Amino acid sequence: MSLLQVRGLTRRFGGVLALWRCDLDVFPAEVHALIGPNGAGKTTLVNLVSGLLAPTEGRVLFQGRDITHVPAHQRTLLGIARTFQITNLFPQDTVLDNLARAVQARTGSSFRFWRPVSSEGQLLEEAASVARRVGLEGRLHTPAHALSHGEQRQLELGVALACNPRLVILDEPTAGMSREETHRVVDLIRSLRGQVAVLLVEHDMDVVFRLSDRITVLVEGRVLASGSPEEVRKNPEVHRAYLGHALDGQKTPERGVRVSRPRPSGPPLLQVEDLQASYGASQVLFGVNLQVPEGGLVTLLGRNGMGKTTTVHTIVGLVTPKGGRVVFDGRRIDRKPPEGVASLGVALVPEGRQIFPNLTVRENLLAFAANRSGADDPWTLDRVLDLFPRLRARLNQMGNQLSGGEQQMLAIGRALMTNPRLLILDEATEGLAPLLREEIWKALRKLNESGLTVLLIDKYVERLTELADYHFILERGRVAWEGPSEALRADPELWRRYLSV
């Protein structure tokens, strides 16, 4: 009998359907991975299992007991513990104190509030035992904030284990780690096999396939596949979810996509050198190097969580780099605020579009009209509407009344109204129907052929090799491969290694 049973689990956030009738079984003492592309619903699912969210429909059963409406703290006492994407510790307390708090919560000794914690010998002894289990026995009296990021993740796992769980939920346990730190955490998770069940959410496919007994794949809030690692790796629908097509499938040409031209050979308009970036203690970029030549169309590829969005956010000034340089048209911009970067001619079409929902299409476009570079043929309202005829009939509709594809066209048009020299698109066609994807690609091809430089993040690799000049693949915050479309198209094993499962 399964330890955890999820049946028909559904979660809506207003009009957004994040999870739809999901079924999942986790068996005692197994490592069960939950994977899927960006926005698949993985974190929503584990939040429902751990009690941080309540489902719209469906049930959660643990050890045969219905816990659908049991609050999170009671689920912990029943034997469900979890870690989070962002480390969640008491930063000023020592390793020993953090672990002792978890032991206190489980044993009930925290109710003896008239006695100092130092007198609780058994409590401290058990906390020290957990520290040894997670490899922190030499750091007992070190404050959590003084630990490395990898050690903080080890401590957070120790806090979960101190609750003496039957099931541990690990949400991105290796995110932001160096390779050495990742190896330590992988060894630690492997040591749990046979002792406690693990539900693992992870984007690093090497980690997933090294650790997992079974894998469930979520796509757009639904369970696409579930089975052994080998079964999942061979499933063409899983590859389609990550790449937009089956890895070994027959190529199906689409109209309006060109065969790539030679890469522009001029000086780079954008130069990124040894770029490093962090979110708190979690380092995401470990020395990214890339170049975008003037007039080129370059892609930035990689699985979700590999640092693509952080790279473009650092380029445009939304994230302050920890190290390295960003040079645009010969000028350093890595310390400029976002508005300063934009004023130089860099425009970002963000993931999720982020248009103004309470403004009309016309107002969304005109609010960004500017020609700071003094272009002879600047982008105007009519010119954007010529590029995206669908928007002409929607001029007086509010942003939130548009379809997803129309919102993406509006987001691109809004960026063009700033008259940029470099257009950056983060997940350019995510969630769009094939016909609308084709319209977006056709527009990008037309823009690039008119001389606009484009840096593009998207997942449809087969199509991108026909659209773009050059590609960079990110793996764990580093450029793992770069090359022209011909080289990428000729080596599908690269796609499997860095972009699929």
Can you summarize this structure?
The protein has 501 residues and is an alpha/beta fold. Helices cover 33% and strands 24% of the residues. The chain starts with a strand and ends with a helix.
What do you see in this structure?
With 501 residues, this protein is α/β, with parallel strands linked by helices. The protein folds into 2 domains: 4-243, Rossmann fold (3-Layer(aba) Sandwich); 269-498, P-loop containing nucleotide triphosphate hydrolases (Rossmann fold, 3-Layer(aba) Sandwich). Helices cover 33% and strands 24% of the residues. It is built from 19 helices and 20 strands. Strands 6-7-8-3-9-10 form a 6-stranded mixed sheet, sandwiched between helices. Helix 3 crosses helix 4, helix 3 packs parallel to helix 5 (149-161) and helix 5 (149-161) runs parallel beside helix 6. It is globular and about 80 Å long. It starts with a strand and ends with a helix. The model is unreliable at 249-260 (pLDDT under 50).
